Amino acid sequence: MKANTLASFLSMFLSILWHQATAQITVANLRTELRSNPIGIDVIAPRLSWQLQGSERSIRQEAYQVLVASSQEKLDQNIGDFWDSGKQVSNNSTYVIYAGRALQSRMEVFWKVKVYTNKGESSWSEPAGWTMGLLHYKDWTGRWIGFDQYFPSDNEQTGQLAARYFRKEFTTTKQIKQATAYVMGLGLYELYIDGKKMGDQVLAPVPTDYTKNIKYNVLDVTKSLSAGKHAIGVILGNGRFYAMRQAKPYKIKTFGYPKMQMQLMLTYTDGSTEIIKTDDSWKGTTEGPITANNEYDGEDYDARKELTGWANPDYDDKTWLKAAFVQEPGGNYEAQSEGMKVMQDIAPVSIVKKSEGKYILDFGQNFSGWVKMTVSGRRGTAVTLRFAESLTEDGELFTTNLRDAKATDHYILKGGGKETWEPRFTYHGFRYVEVSGYPGIASKNNFVGRFVYDDIPNTGTFVSSNTLINRIHQNAWWGIASNYKGIPVDCPQRNERQPWLGDRPVSAYGENFLFDNANFYTKWLEDIRLSQKEDGALPDVAPAFWCYYSDNISWPGTYLFIADMLYQQTGDLRILEKHYPAMKKWMDYMQLRYTGTDGIITKDSYGDWCFPPVTIEAGRGKIADKKYPSALIATSYYYHLLQMMSRFSVLVGNGQDQANFLDRAAKMRVEFDTAFYHDAGYYGSNSLTDNLLPMSLGLVEDANREKLSNRIVEIVEKENQGHLSTGLIGTQWIMRTLTKIGRVDLAYKIATNKTYPSWGYMVENGATTIWELWNGNTAHPKMNSQNHVMMLGDLLVWLYEDLAGIKSKEHAFQTVVMKPQVVAGFDHVDASYKSVYGTIQSNWSKSKSTFEWKISIPANTKAEIYLPTTVLSSILESNRKLKNEKDIQILRQEKSGTWFAIGSGDYQFKIKL
Question: How far apart are CA 476 and CA 416, in angstroms?
Answer without folding.
Answer: 44
